[in-house]
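haha ok so turns out i had the wrong file open the whole time. this is the CORRECT one, sorry everyone. sequence first:
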Amino acid sequence: MRHTITAGFISVLLGLFPLNPVQAAWDAPTLSLMSQGLDAFWGGFLQRLGVKYTYPVVHTHKGAEMTPCGLAMIAHYCSQTNTIHLNMTQMNKLASRIGDSAAYFSLAHEYGHSVQRHLGMLDKNLPVVVLELQADCLAGVFFSATKQLGLLEPGDIEEGVIMATMTGDNHYEDPSHHGTSKQRAKAFLSGLRNPTACFQ
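then structure:
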């Protein structure tokens, strides 16, 4: 996905769109295409489980933004409104400095939280680190789906691993601890290799 993504991903999942290449600049059309792909993938997954999926609404901004769930700095999911908030300035920086799959990882991770909401995981008072690592794992599941469709390019998985690693922290005693760099990279790769690992 580093240089191009294709509407073929959406066409396979939805059966709606023609196979036309789309430039993978981190812009509104690319964000829309990736969001549709995530909607289709997780919508189909949850439908098979008998769960009705309400697609999260993705809001974009160019700086920090206050949401009903708090301040959104880079990428943020608000469970109260089932919305994802993306700082497009930061997404562009990630895409240019690491590769576009680093930004795709961020979006896929936030979609993972929406999946958790639909499965009732957010109502179980689980530690933040457990939920964050599971969302990393679910991002890996989505990357696995794109790999099976032949849409990953050399370096895409590595970009996802780099992004997962960069977002790790060592603040073990902080209630908002998201997991160490090693834990987050491992969770992402676990979902990539074995989707069922996210629910074990």
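Confidence is low (pLDDT under 50) at residues 2-23.
again sry for the mixup
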